[in-house]
Amino acid sequence: MDINSDKLNFCGDYFSKKNLKLILAESMTAGFISSVISLEINSGDYFLGSIVCYHDDMKISSLGVDPELIKKAGAVSEEVTHALLNGLRDRYDAHIAVAVTGYAFEDKAISDENPVGTVFLQIQYQNSFINKKCLFTGEAHDIITATANEIIENLYEMVLLSETQERDKI
Questions:
Q1: Which of 11, 55, 90, 115 is such that its CA lies 20 to 30 A from the CA of 21?
Q2: For 54-92, how does the pLDDT look when each residue is reduced to its tens digit (9 = 90+)?
C-alpha cells in the first residue's frame, strides 16, 4: 500500500499558503506519520513536529496523560487518544493537532472489542473535530500505512470543507 501523496501534497500546499501549523502525537505509528509528512515539499512551512509517545511513560511525561486514565481505559482507547490531543493543544500553538493510538501487533491488551488493527485517531482542525475508531487488516506495516492514509484523507476532507466555507463567505 502506498501513501496518498496527492492528497498529502494538496493539504501541505493549503497549510503552507494559509500559514497553518500542524502537530502530532503518535503512539502506535511511532513517528511514521511524521516521516511521511516530512517528505511533503512544503512541510517546513507548517509541520511543527511530533511527540512519539509509544510507551505509556512518554504519554504521561510528555503530554500529561493521567496514569489512572491509562489504567482505567487502556493506552489504546478513545479516552487516552483524546488526552494526547488535549496534551498537544495545551502545550503547543498549532492550528491542527492529530493524535493516534492503536494495535499494529499482537499485545496482551488486545480484546475482541479491540483486536490487532484497531486504531483510534482524533484530529482537531481549527473549529472542526474528528474522532474515529478504525479497524485495519494486514501486517503491522499495512496497518500503520493505512492509519497514515486515513489521517491524510481526513485532513484532506477538512481542507475541502474549509475551502468551501471560505468561498461561501465571499
A1: 55
A2: 999 999 999 999 999 999 999 999 999 999 999 999 999
Residues 6 or more apart in contact with residue 69 via CB below 8 angstroms: 79, 80, 83
β strands within the chain, DSSP E: 22-26, 47-52, 96-102, 118-125, 128-135
What cell was used for 34?
Answer: 511524521
How far is the C-alpha of 104 from the C-alpha of 90, rounded, in Å? 28
May I ask the CATH class of domain 3-166? alpha beta
CB 27 within 8 A of CB 54: yes
Q: Number of helices (H) and strands (E) in the chain: give both, helices first.
A: 7, 5
Read off the pTM: 0.95
Q: Among 143, 42, 34, which residue's Cα sits nearest to residue 99?
A: 34
| Alpha carbons 40 and 165: distance in angstroms, whole number | 25
Give the C-alpha separation, 23 to 47, whole Å. 6
**For residues 118 and 80, is the Cβ–Cβ distance under 8 A?**
no
